[in-house]
Amino acid sequence: MNPLAATNRYFKQAVRILGVDSKVERSLMIPFREIKVECTIPADNGTLLSFIGFRVQHDNARGPMKGGIRYHPQVDPDEVNALAQLMTWKTAIAHLPYGGAKGGIGCNPNELSASELERLTRVFTQKIHDLIGVQTDVPAPDMGTNAQTMAWILDEYSKFHGHSPAVVTGKPLDLGGSLGREAATGRGVVYATEALLKDHGKIIADQSFVIQGFGNVGSWTATILHEQGGKVIAISDANGAVKNTDGIDVPRLVDYAKKTGGVKGFDGGEDIDPKSILAERCDVLIPAAIGGVLTRENANGVQAKFVVEAANHPTDPDADEILAKKGVVVLPDVYANAGGVTVSYFEWVQVKHTSGK
Fold it and tell me: Is 127 a catalytic residue?
């Protein structure tokens, strides 16, 4: 299902349940501002590369708009709109004084050199610098971006507005970043999982876990679950999947993936088809990769008792209904993965206090 259609369907269901006024509903269906820019850069080989960048600012009623910037081939207006809307709900649920925003560039960062990524980030910042700001819209890392990306944005933005370390979060520590920000989303997923299990009389150490995705969120989630005694029995990434019913040695797998670029071929388990990861038998399934992975077509195959949405909108509304009929408890993304924006708030407040802007 189209991500924006799915998000709007959830929103309309919530509106009916809460009895929200129709005027407010219409207002919240339409984003505050949509930005689409062309970003052309010289490639390392002398040719020109062109990309489309987006920034959607959904709502600023509660404070400056907040949301990540992702670099991924699937970035498009509908996805960015949906993610911006989800950030509005996420920051409200976490009681943070923010509104929602999201941005991205349709590119494959793995196919670009570090210098090309820097040029692309700086050109994108040049196109949107007058529409973001410390009290307006504060970007952060997301899929395909990291602390270095935020450092480039901060530097380029500061050329126009003076040194403004609070204009982005998820920065390197030397530029005013926050300790723990890199692990924050994954740690928040674990805290949310712990609270969910407690409500059902269970603890992490007694549960088995399957994780789809081994990027920042998936790897930190797996690492912290392992530290707390949880048995992580299967993990997948974009190119492979590994399974060990006795429990994967997660620290070893993290080291292996850093050296080889993925989980495929890890000798601490057997390789399985990554397409089967969502149907593996376990207590807790954690989709931590891209959106829209649980659908009407595969939801009946889910064998987990709990689904914790570490990714953004991983479950389509049709799949949600199927899982509910099966008795599977789904912990929504707007709660489960709010750890990242929570620590981003700490960073934003701290650097504003120390720098004045």
Answer: no
